[in-house]
Automatic annotation (TrEMBL):
Entry's transmembrane regions: none
Catalytic reactions on record: (S)-malate + a quinone = a quinol + oxaloacetate
Protein name, entry field: Probable malate:quinone oxidoreductase
Biochemical pathway: Carbohydrate metabolism; tricarboxylic acid cycle; oxaloacetate from (S)-malate (quinone route): step 1/1
Root EC class: oxidoreductase
SUPFAM superfamilies in alphabetical order: FAD/NAD(P)-binding domain
Amino acid sequence: MASEVKTDVVLVGGGIMSATLGVFLKEVEPTWDITLLERLDAVGQESSNPWNNAGTGHSALCELNYAPLGADGTVNPTKAIAINEQFQISRQLWASLVEEGKIKDSSFINPVPHMSLVFGDAHVDYLAKRFEAFQDQKLFERMKFSTDLEQIRDWAPLSVNGRDIHQKIAATWSPEGTDVDFGNLTTQMTDYLVSKGVTVTYDQQVTDVTKESDGTWTVKVKDRLNRNHGSTIRAKFVFLGAGGGALNLLQKSGIKEGKGFGGFPVSGLFFRNTNEQTALQHNAKVYGQASVGAPPMSVPHLDTRYVGGKRSLLFGPYAGFKTNFLKQGSLLDLPLSLRPDNVYPMIRAGLANMDLTKYLIGELLKNREKHVLSLREYYPEAVADEWELITAGQRVQVIKKDKKAGGVLQFGTELITSGDGSIAALLGASPGASTAAPIMLNLLQQCFPTHFDGWAPRIKELVPGFGVQLNDNHDLADELFAHTAQVLGINN
């Protein structure tokens, strides 16, 4: 038996993106009816789950791929600055929600310094150039650089103890880094939405989205627990925020803006260490250089993590390949995503990224012994028995049409909106969750242009730095950074 209901907004997927968009909409249009549909039995269980992502609080403090060495031998900080600006927007939103009592506490975020750690002459020279490029940037002013083994030991003893003292090594250290449990944050945001009348339903899988002649959308939903029950929802606006599952629904929507998009899934494994004595010896997120051909999300890193209030260590990722687009998805996801309009772009992108294929094959051939050897590059004295290998989340890298190359593989996120603004989808991976607030503000501007000016005052209350480049406005940057740190309890 199927029921039919009408609503203003449907949010597909119960992750950090839908939760963030839902919060913004409830704040600027409290009378709108919103329905959130989640295919699992709780929110934040796929990409937003703390064990399925790095939880870095992506602010480009330590991720070297955001400021690579250019062909001219220089480092351009522009992209890293932009990502840090985006993270500050998210951080301001979170602080406002805590300060206004809309989410219960700041247990989702903890202060953890961010580090970059490199080895060998060429990488050390690069890191020195990167540090020099960042020195005059306001958002990176607290970053320190060192090639001194004892200084680096003070920052991250586990990464230095037992290392060859003659090895060439360098590190940068940024004390303002954070660790974010996006599962916790998603749950708190969703609880707030429920308290404001948002309908949140679980075990509901969207099977189709169709545009009607009056401009509304029909969303067909299957009850995963009872196949005899389903629903049809008529909505004025639909957001496809279902992680890897968004591509299939975007294709079903039929909007021209979604033509030519494909996805390439990359799975991941992490080593996890829950030994409290070991975890207490390491307080940093230590990022290295990615292997040749590796996607940015496969950059090796040794992380301090806080999940459920408990401190642990995480190392990885070790990349893998499965054809499902969600961790709890179907192995048919990739083949069923092939369409006449995306086959050629996917082939062209594949041919242009053969080094990625070689990298994945190499990763798949690794056994536990080789996994431990990789760990010991960043933690020389690691005790193998303390580490368990866990399966992390699935990431679906965006493939899109390109006039020159035919198709390109992208490693970021892609927001796709229809011409009339009635539907939007978010594809891609890193930096993802950390930039949820600015991405959703961008969506609001694109999809609701006639409303946005009227919403601006409330948005500025929630995000005081919205529309301002903090890197160029030093006094405001200091003020907002200090305020958010105090509210979120992350002074460091």
